[in-house]
Design goal:
This protein is of the alpha+beta class and 196 residues long. It has 6 helices and 7 strands.
């Protein structure tokens, strides 16, 4: 540990990323590190991590020196993901705050990229039974948090994101939505023209 003017400075841990590795960028979710390149910016050569977010159709360049500060991290472990999903099974948090503040907190949790904070949003906003309804904004926040969790879950378990979302909701026991547009055809009610 180094000291500067009597203050102890914790050494910054060096994040070691490899090309082809999946990583999590807090505000974008899971992406794949496609290459490390050097760019000349303001007369300085800067090493950049080039991350492809296929689902968002986006490429992001993060300076290697800023990777840790930006929150870029490797995928979590399967064990930590299982812990996050288990915590999402818990009882919803207190709803004493007005919705605008709660929504801002949920947004912050989603953009943290932390599986446990994503699980909090999923836990608080999930439907507990088939008759539960959600406001549009609550549903959007829930779906974004679930998708962020599912992105990481999908890579960890080698499945697609939709399958991962369904699997997480199955584990949590989230009731399936009723399709109000589905037509239940009952053949007994149909009367043939010959019989009339």
């Amino acid at each position: 540990m180094a000291t500067v003017k009597g203050i102890q400075i914790m050494p910054s841990k060096k994040l070691d990323f490899k090309t082809g590795q999946y990583v999590v960028y807090p505000t974008q979710g899971v992406g794949k590190l496609v290459r490390v390149e050097e760019q000349n910016i303001g007369g300085q050569k800067i090493k950049m991590l080039v991350i492809d977010f296929e689902r968002n159709h986006m490429t992001l360049r993060v300076p290697v020196e800023r990777a840790e500060v930006s929150g870029l991290r490797p995928l979590t472990s399967i064990k930590k993901m299982d812990e996050a999903i288990s915590s999402a099974k818990g009882k919803a948090g207190a709803k004493r705050m007005i919705w605008a503040r709660r929504a801002a907190q949920y947004e912050e949790n989603i953009n943290s990229g932390d599986p446990m904070k994503l699980a909090e949003v999923v836990r608080d906003l999930q439907r507990r039974n088939a008759t539960d309804t959600m406001t549009f904004s609550a549903r959007q926040l829930y779906l974004r948090a679930l998708e962020r969790m599912a992105q990481e879950f999908a890579v960890l378990h080698k499945m697609d994101i939709e399958e991962a979302s369904d699997k997480i909701e199955d584990i949590l026991g989230v009731p399936k939505e009723i399709d109000l547009n589905a037509i239940d055809s009952d053949d007994d009610d149909e009367v043939e023209e010959d019989e009339v």
